[in-house]
Amino acid sequence: MTTFSDFGLAEPILKALSGEGYETPTPIQTQAIPLVLEGRDLLGIAQTGTGKTAAFSLPILDRFARDPKPRQPRACRALILSPTRELASQIADNIRIYGRNLRVSTQVVFGGMPINRQIRQLERGVDILVATPGRLLDLIDRRALTLSNVEALVLDEADQMLDLGFIHALRRIAKLVPRERQSLFFSATMPKSIGGLAEEYLDNPARVAVQPSATTAERVAQQVVFVSSGQKHRLLAEVLQDGAVSRALVFTRTKHGADKVVKQLDRDGIPSAAIHGNKSQGQRERALNDFRQGRCKVLIATDIAARGIDVDGVSHVINFELPNVPESYVHRIGRTARAGADGAALSFCNMEERAYLRDIQRTTRQDIPVMPLPLGFTPEPPLDAPIPKAGKPGKGGQNGKPARGFGAGKPGSHRKGGRPSFGEGAGAQARSGAPRNGAPGRPARPQRREQRPAAY
Ligand code: AMP
Fold first, then answer.
1. Where does ligand 1 bind, in terms of residues with CB under 6 Å?
2. Which atom of ligand 1 is nearest to the CA of 22?
3. Mean pLDDT computed over every residue of the chain
4. Is 334 contained in some domain?
5. CA of 50 to the centre of ligand 1 (A)
6. Count of the separate structural domains present in the chain
7. Ligand 1 centroid, distance to 439 Cα (angstroms)
8. Is residue 259 packed enough to be buried (19+ CB in 10 Å), middle (13-18) or exposed (0-12)?
9. pTM of the predicted structure, to 2 decimals
């Protein structure tokens, strides 16, 4: 089995890794680190949670440890681009940990923070700069930063960058970095548009891919409960009071929906906080910190805000609303079962979301076991109700057949009362699901995504 010392990384880095309890490299690390150490450009298909931050940052730190150079004013040697401020801070935090025994400086810049302070911090220059594209260009336009010394360029979560409308910013940045550089490009998915962008950035790249959809989805004990929209709030309160739920991340499709859940839980006496693009930077950081440190055990998030969130020990992911993009489901449930741990995910599915559920099951090639509604809830939808076709939720009645595989066809399977068995023994069921073979089917491009938050 490969170990970190097999890569020949500098001793201070190995020391920091063992201090963090990293024993064996993750698959993306095993594949990517030797290639990046060789100096190759890299195209990596991997999502947050796979250990990709270390995959790209350890070789960069290693190079800077062996080849230290004096800082140049208003310049950086490595530039790491991230779509969101949460991910940017997280990347910078991880790099500071991995490089804690080195004299390598790391700085992070993103929008929503006073720019003047960032300008002052950049004056002396920095070794590694982590940035969101918009703020980076602002700083360049104000002559607070030049990219002409960049030796290594990392573009993280490229698909998310495009979804957030950063394509023009990325094209501009590509023209501002020296041609002679190493480029590393990561994306969770590789649709054509990303392939085109990757070509602009990369020179004869090595390709590595890990299959988070398979590994993550198999480790998470998943369940779905059929419940009407009107009863979802009450069910959430009930589920959250289950003793097995120690730290829950609850997903909604919209920012408004997230705020509504917080208000409703508040009425039920369950403290929670929401993070989404309409919250100020301070509010988001406070909510995340409270959640990380266990002061608040319920965090409500939208897909974009949660992308890249790395919180250890999330015991449960609850999909209060199912995502209309199957990939988002995989991202969501990947927030639990981090770094090898097991986790549980429960999805609330109303009649209109059944089409989403069907897409999710098709993409993940798994049948999600059904959890019966607890006593006191009215089963919904009725067993003989028609299933809306995928992509047209809300327009029921097209095919009239119950969806295969999630218990809808089994009489009484979700009508029975009884306590919810959330988190108990569902792992075995989830793991016994159909094995995945190879890459998941390419999910359709999103039909509707949350708008780019104004603050990004
Ligand atoms: P990332 O995909 O970079 O966001 O990493 C996901 C999580 O896994 C982070 O909490 C990392 O600290 C952790 N991690 C990364 N690599 C390893 C490893 N080799 N062993 C244990 N944990 C790791």
1. 22, 25-26, 29, 48-54, 310, 338-339
2. 20
3. 81
4. yes
5. 7
6. 3
7. 22
8. middle
9. 0.60
CATH number for the domain spanning 295: value is 3.40.50.300
pLDDT at 371 over 50: yes
Query: Does residue 377 belong to any structural domain of this protein?
Result: no
- Which of 364, 381, 399 is the endpoint of a domain? 364
Name which residue leads in pLDDT, 188 or 265.
Answer: 265
Domain span holding position 30: 4-209
- State pLDDT tens for residues 248-299: 999 999 889 999 999 999 999 999 999 887 777 788 888 888 998 888 999 9
- End of a domain among 348, 364, 380? 364
Residue 329: Cβ within 10 Å count:
30
Residue 182 lies in a domain: yes
Reported as a single tens digit per residue, the pLDDT across 373-426 is: 998 898 865 555 555 555 444 333 333 322 222 223 333 333 333 334 444 333
Atom of ligand 1 nearest to the CA of 94: 12
Complete DSSP assignment for 58-117: HHHHHHHHHS-----TTBEEEEEE-SSHHHHHHHHHHHHHHTTTS---EEEE-TTS-HHH
The two three-digit tokens of residue 409, written as one number: 């066809």
